[in-house]
Design brief:
Helix content of chain B: 25-40%
Largest interface: A-B, 202 and 206 residues
Largest sheet of chain A: 7 strands, mixed
Largest sheet of chain B: 7 strands, mixed
Helix content of chain A: 25-40%
Number of strands of chain B: 13
Number of strands of chain A: 14
Number of helices of chain B: 15
Order of helices and strands of chain B: EHHHHHEHEHEHEHEHEEEEHEHEEHHH
Oligomer: heterotetramer
Bound molecules: pyridoxal-5'-phosphate
Order of helices and strands of chain A: HHEHHHEHEHEEHEEEEEHHEHEEEH
Shape of chain A: globular
Strand content of chain A: 5-15%
Structural class of chain B: alpha/beta
Strand order of the largest sheet of chain B: 2-8-7-6-5-3-4
Distance between the termini of chain B: 25 Å
Strand content of chain B: 5-15%
Structural class of chain A: alpha/beta
Number of helices of chain A: 12
Radius of gyration of chain B: 26 Å
Shape of chain B: globular
Chain lengths: 447, 508, 508, 447
């Protein structure tokens, strides 16, 4: 077995030192009736070469960015990742290390997290960011729980436009806590309708996704007003982090917690995971934050360095009184995102976001011409709802024939819109591809 | 500012050498630099401020640095040189199973069909991945003796949460409101944290003088209001909970369920199966037992396995092999009225599934068993060689890891922390320390099966050298590490005046 | 065995830290270990001894170690930590153009269509690569002002050999036997070696007091028996050979040809073209000018470019775009009766072509020119800041690199070698030293355009710190390097009693 | 430009220090009439994303191991490379370093070369190996030149079966040196006919490829005898290095120089390059060797370490009197091969070689049944000549239809054999693929 060094001679010598007659004897502590007395029924081992063939075949069984034009986003976005990102993430000093408990021998990971925390503060307009959470959905859930701890309240108001899967996860996390989940409605322009009527003195927070799952850019100041008037927090959830390259920092518009999904920052779609949940808040709430935090300190010789800190919030110290149960998080994804943001810088990120926006506006025009309609007039970023002339299924079928994964069928999530798709255009969606998509979705019904 | 290059050079794997320096990346930033080329616009450019309104758009992005590609690459390459890692040496963090992460798995996870596919693409266009998920679920069920597995939880702790939630759903389904969850005092922190996160009251159960859980203790704590007992087997002392079957009977006897923390499954591969102990639900740590890399703190994957009684409550979506009637291939099912719902926006950390699957296929039944055998052999070998200098917390045969106390250091003024830091000077990442909490100055060592006999001997020599130094030259140990770029870092100071983000030095 | 952790910590990029140790891999070997799984035989197994006869087969393979995969990975990962590299910092080896190696290019060269294709597969099944080769040849011709390019030579020296052979073929075609090749005393060693390898007598031409070649000197050495002059422009002093045009006329006047060593082309990208100077044939170093990595000593690629007069002699095969009449695409031509023949079993180092092509496409005309401009700016900046402490060998404006002498060290007892070794303590790979030979204690510094202003300033500070140390504390400099795992290595001893392979220690 | 850090402000400040008015002024040394006064006529720069699309398209234009079954070897062999090899070769400490001139900061590269030299000694049965040469062909040429230096003779006898491209390169390298190249003939069994009649007192060496280009394993002792009797050296060229895992070490059978191509040791086919030339010889000839050599020494503190040594053979010291002009060689390929051999070890290499051999014998049987003939009875390793019933072209066409690159058409190299292919079967050629190949080459003419 190439992953295990032991030779039979090694084993003999080790048993002699231990004073055990056999390896079998080492398992004497396992009661006989609990022993498995047969070989596991899993396939026989294969050589690396044969395994590679098998895995390549499995991979070939999936449509992907290399095989299709791509207009499907809805929480996981098709973006280009500079090669330098994976080159760094492939450094085994990073990917084969554990959580940096032993600071003196983990400074590479620790300084990276410190840099990431700083970048997220800049993007969100808030004071503190944690290292990471599992994904955007659990980040939204953790934010709601955090707001409940901060406010000692148990009612969570969710403005319209939260990713349906995020809403599901928030619901899951709230079970057993006697919490109440209230969903807002949608305004005709596609943005969230006013939540003011839903917010009461028991409300811990208003959760709003920016931009909305349906695309529109939400009016944060109004939502903040509604929340703050009743002493609730505003939780802004960002599923398409690239939007932060262009939108005003939510922290400047009243958000108390900004969290979401940073997969767009150089992390492969990877069939949805690993992704990268992030969460930032105001300094005042730092002790209620979930997740790891890295802080700067000094060493015995007064030299600056970094350590995991404020661990008294965490499970390994606080156990049942911890702010969260999270332990292993998404460290390597955080590294990738930090490298990605360092490569793009403020201008690169802003220009890339602008290209995404421009492509979306171009696509809207083409789609209208092709006979589709756009139900929601509110301004959007790189994703929007398209109503198709016939059925969403038929339209997606035509797109597929034209070589494109054309978007998300909204029927399961928002049947009220009618036959509609959520379409996303990033820097990968080239003009010609957009033209082909429009033609296929319109089904030749050009006006 | 020179420190002595201390310690016998022939012990361990490290001496001193050139170390690269690098400031926070923001201090390398210069306005106007970039490491990225934005594609030329092939469509009319939209002016964001006009499109969204001036108040909605930002004027700039503070705290993003400006560097060329070469500077970014150098920055992170240098940072990487400050890390210890499995690829550089023994990383015996107890309870973390820092085994070798095969390179093939890294390459496989990067295949475009896996890395560049989307969770919401039609199932018909994702048969390769769905098939792999279904197969991996089946293999994990067989390895653990559970009936069904969901890969969705993103890490062990989320697997625990999923398990606890299924237990709650199960009881509520029966119209029962149970309030307490019993957890041994040796349990990992995530256990109580997960139970509490789902609203349960946590009650600690003391382990016996022999370091394992006794039926009496469980029986005494057990009651009709107890939803579940969470048990880790082997436990965090590396001891097999030999009464586990009886304990499960006791809990079941009062209508409770038993949660199994599978973080230590590496010790049992092909040897014994939690499902056969009476465990109702458990999680796996693919990033421990199944060799997916830890990534400096994740991503991991914490699949949850259940017996059929809990199957109705599994998280959705569920990957299902189609019936003959439906054709061939795999589909996604959402129709589970009793499901606890979703835990992840997608399917979990799919990239880790690919790696774990590759690992399972590389090992097969014999290889899996060999892992457990050699992991246990290694732990027992270490204990045998260390026991005189570092007496074990509980003197019983261990499984995949061993826990020693700081008794051997008594009178030296040297602490477990000092020993850990001193080990760094010899080129070893320290073991887990001060856990489990019930062991005084615990040093928890898990070598895994990846370690060779010579590697273990080197580690033992280093541990013994430190023990000698603790007597002969305690200052040297208390002052460790000496060979690293940084001396010991002040964690208290970090917590007292938290500096959690970079800020420009105020111009002097 | 501790050495002082010397030097101001704020100078340069390095201090001291933990260094991994690792013996020769053979000392890690244990019988029975392996890092490889041989695929199961799906055909009847043949017994080699029976098939080939017992005397023809070996009984074992000495000197191959036996290790598991994890041990092999750790071995080489640790070894890697002992190297300096471009990704870790400035690597200002003069004449080597150690610029940044873009990561995209590494990924591109690994695309299966490039990395997993075969040189003898039918041209119809290799149109992608053949097209890339043809395009790169065209781009290199435009950049250099030559008419035709062949990518076949595997490195610069083989490009030189190809060029010299074409020159020979050209003369012989004319029925002329010319015996001598003129080479300036500043030339790189490969120039005379390549000429001699093809049977030419090498005659050195002295450069003038200003470090460049003068028409008179060439005229004097020139004669009807001179096959060619080899010239490097900018030359190895970093100086532009401003009389190159006149010199070419002189050589041509007597029927000779001029070979241009293109190793320093980085200084001229978009600025001037050897083909416009009168150069008849030249080589490129893709691993210098066009950013392909040096790989710790290759692989590189040394394409050769020629004027039309030499085109008939280009190595075969030649990649040709099909005529309309023949259809579209590219074909391989072997029908060049006057060709010097083959230099490589395939097409040369194709993987480097992919990288260089990617680099050209990333830069475009403006980027290429920017390279030359910033490379020259960097070299001049360094010289300006260093000149007082390290006087230039020749006091003229430099191009992409500058050469200083050891005059500034006079009386200190410190040599160029000492300065080089001391720079290592500050985290810099030393410049090229003792070359060109005509400069006493030459220090040849080529920063390339990849280096930032701050990076150069740090290097300057280190150079100046060393100059100060040379006066105030010469022993420290003579004893350098101090911060590295190894002290200065004894090259004389290595040459006196060569130990060129590992051997087991004779059992004591 | 993302590869160049300079900002306009940096440029201004640097010019000020230099005391130059402009960047343009720095080129004052270039006579005006030699300046290029227009932009280079190369395509405009493209973004990384667009470039990637372009390169992926070019790559997709080539048949490769992922798209076809592969039976084409003839000097470059389709083998499986364990993932660990590229993981190590992707360490930038290795691939972005230069030739290890500065030993104290290049020990990683130096120790690797030392280990490679040792492994090659074991495989060849000789005393010293250099670091590397460009490829197998130039290694053969350098070996012939080296033999000429050692013997001070100028006649080179090439036994039949040297790879035609290697022979071409040897011929090329010999031009201008007044050397004589003599080619031997082929025996009916496919091996080289006796070269004794060709070897005279002016003969520097006999060059023989093992196994022959046509597959047969040559009789080295006989060839050694013929060479040594007249004081010539025996140069054994190995194009398929994997054969060394199974064949007796040439050094034990009389070879004075063993050289060749080590691409089979974990290096991708890469359309033929970069490859890995190697060369080993007896200690007595070390000072006539071409290429880099690494030797062990000690440092100031008596600690063992490695340096480049015996450089007085080399161009940078000896200039026109150097043993070769080689400077940059194939360092990274040497690293890959060293990692590969370390992974396989002696048993892995032997077993893998045996699998290759077994596949070849299986293929021979299938091909015979399919109506092909095998003109050469001499025992071979993993490659052999197949005479096809009709024309090589037609046979290869049928193979291609069956999804295979079926081998090398020998017409250009050995028309005398008739319609024939050189077919190679490695561990990648699975039984079913071999069956398909046999059927297609036979064209249904099964006996
Ligand atoms: C015993 C035990 N249980 C649970 C966990 C939590 O697993 P994760 O870190 O994947 O959330 C760990 C991980 O350290 C553990 O050691
Ligand atoms: C000026 C000069 N000419 C020629 C060469 C030889 O090029 P290569 O090393 O690619 O053979 C070099 C490389 O060092 C060089 O600097």
């Amino acid at each position: 077995m190439r992953y295990i060094p032991h030779t039979e001679d090694d084993v003999r010598r080790m048993l002699a030192v231990i004073g055990a007659p056999s390896v079998e004897a080492l398992f004497g502590g396992v009661p006989d009736k609990l022993r498995l007395r047969r070989a596991l029924d899993v396939p026989r081992a294969v050589s690396e070469q044969d395994l590679w063939r098998e895995l390549a075949a499995a991979a070939a069984g999936n449509a992907n960015l290399d095989t299709h034009d791509w207009f499907l986003g809805a929480g996981i976005y098709p973006h280009f990742t500079p090669a330098a990102v994976d080159a760094i993430a492939s450094r085994s000093e990073f990917y084969t290390a554990y959580t940096p408990y032993q600071a003196e021998i983990s400074q590479g990971t620790l300084q990276t997290i410190f840099e990431w925390q700083t970048m997220i503060c800049g993007l969100t307009g808030l004071d503190v960011s944690n290292a990471s959470l599992y994904d955007g959905a659990s980040a939204a859930a953790e934010a709601a729980l955090m707001a409940m701890r901060v406010t000692r309240r148990s009612r969570v108001v969710v403005a319209d436009g939260l990713h349906p899967h995020y809403a599901d996860v928030v619901r899951t996390y709230l079970t057993g806590l006697g919490a109440e989940l209230v969903l807002g409605s949608r305004a005709p322009d596609g943005r969230a309708a006013s939540v003011a009527p839903l917010v009461d003195d028991a409300t811990a927070c208003v959760v709003v996704q920016q931009p909305s799952f349906f695309g529109p850019v939400q009016d944060l100041p109004v939502l903040a007003e509604a929340a703050h008037r009743r002493g609730a927090l505003l939780v802004v959830v960002v599923a398409e982090a690239l939007a932060l390259g262009l939108l005003r920092a939510p922290g400047e518009l009243g958000a108390d917690i900004v969290c979401g999904e940073a997969q767009s920052f150089g992390i492969p779609m990877g069939f949805g995971g690993p992704a990268l949940g992030f969460l930032a808040t105001r300094r005042a709430h730092v002790r209620q934050m979930p997740g790891r935090l890295v802080g700067r300190t000094t060493d015995a010789r007064g030299r600056a360095g970094y350590v995991l800190t404020l661990s008294t919030r965490e499970q390994h110290i606080r156990r049942e009184r911890a702010t969260s149960n999270i332990c292993t998080n998404q460290g390597l994804c955080l590294l990738m995102a930090t490298v990605y943001l360092a490569l793009l810088g403020p201008l690169g990120l802003a220009r890339l976001a602008r290209l995404n926006l421009s492509r979306a506006e171009y696509a809207k025009a083409r789609l209208r011409e092709a006979g589709c309609t756009l139900p929601y007039p509110a301004a959007s970023f790189n994703e929007f709802v398209v109503r198709v002339p016939d059925s969403a299924e038929a339209a997606l079928g035509r797109a597929l024939e034209a070589g494109a994964v054309g978007g998300l069928d909204l029927a399961p999530h928002a049947p009220e819109i009618g036959p509609a798709l959520l379409v996303c255009t990033t820097e990968l969606a080239q003009r010609e591809a957009i033209d082909r998509l429009a033609a296929s979705l319109g089904g030749g019904r050009a006006r | 500012m020179s420190r002595p290059d201390t310690g016998p050079e022939d012990v361990g794997y490290a001496t001193r050498g050139l170390a690269w320096e690098e400031p926070p990346i923001f201090e390398r930033s210069r306005p106007g630099r970039t490491g990225f080329a934005v594609p030329a616009a092939d469509v009319p450019e939209v002016e964001p401020a006009e499109h969204l309104g001036p108040d909605a758009v930002r004027r700039g992005i503070p705290d993003l640095p400006e560097l060329s590609e070469v500077e970014v690459v150098r920055h992170f390459t240098r940072l990487s040189t400050w890390n210890a890692s499995v690829d550089l040496g023994l990383y015996p963090l107890g309870s973390c199973t820092m085994k070798y992460n095969p390179k093939l798995n890294e390459a496989a996870a990067r295949l475009p069909g896996f890395a560049r596919s989307h969770p919401l693409q039609p199932a018909a266009l994702a048969q390769g991945i769905l098939g792999l998920i279904a197969e991996l679920e089946r293999h994990l069920a067989e390895v653990s003796g559970m009936d069904r597995v969901s890969l969705q939880p993103a890490a062990g702790a989320q697997g625990e949460l999923a398990g606890i939630m299924m237990i709650r759903a199960y009881h509520e389904q029966r119209g029962e409101r149970r309030l307490r969850v019993l957890i041994p005092d040796t349990a990992h922190g995530t256990n109580p944290a997960s139970a509490a996160l789902n609203g349960y009251e946590v009650q600690a159960v003391p382990s016996g003088p022999d370091g394992i859980l006794h039926p009496e203790a469980v029986a005494e704590a057990m009651g009709p209001d107890v939803a579940a007992l969470m048990i880790t087997n082997p436990n965090t002392l590396g001891l097999f909970e030999e009464h586990v079957a009886r304990i499960c009977e006791i809990v079941h006897g009062e209508g409770g369920l038993v949660y199994g923390d599978g973080a230590n499954l590496n010790a049992l591969l092909g040897i014994a199966r939690p499902g056969d102990f009476g465990i109702d639900v458990m999680h796996f740590n693919l990033h421990k037992t199944f060799s997916t890399p830890h990534g400096g703190g994740g991503p991991g994957a914490g699949p949850v396995g259940v017996k059929n009684v809990l199957a109705p409550y599994l998280p959705v979506p569920v990957v299902r092999r189609l019936e003959e009637s439906e054709g061939t291939g795999f589909a996604l099912d959402y129709e589970f009225p009793h499901s606890i719902g979703r835990l992840h926006a997608g399917f979990g950390n799919v990239g880790m599934f690919v790696r774990a699957f590759a690992y399972l296929r590389s090992l097969g039944p014999d290889g899996l068993r060999r892992c457990a055998e050699m992991a246990v052999l290694n732990a027992n070998y270490l204990l045998a060689r260390l026991r005189r200098a570092y007496p074990p917390a509980y003197d019983r045969p261990v499984m995949h890891e061993c826990v020693v106390s700081d008794r051997g250091l008594e009178g030296t003024g040297v602490t477990t922390m000092d020993v850990a830091k001193r080990l760094i000077d010899y080129g070893f990442h320290p073991p887990t320390i001060y856990f489990p909490l019930i062991v005084h100055g615990a040093i928890m060592i898990e070598p895994t099966e990846s370690e060779s006999l010579e590697g273990l001997d080197r580690f033992v020599e280093a541990m013994l050298a430190v023990a000698r130094e603790a007597r002969d030259d305690p200052e040297r140990v208390r002052g460790a590490p000496h060979r690293t770029r940084h001396g010991r870092l002040d964690e208290t100071r970090a917590a007292r005046q938290p500096v959690l983000r970079w800020q420009p030095e105020p111009p002097a």
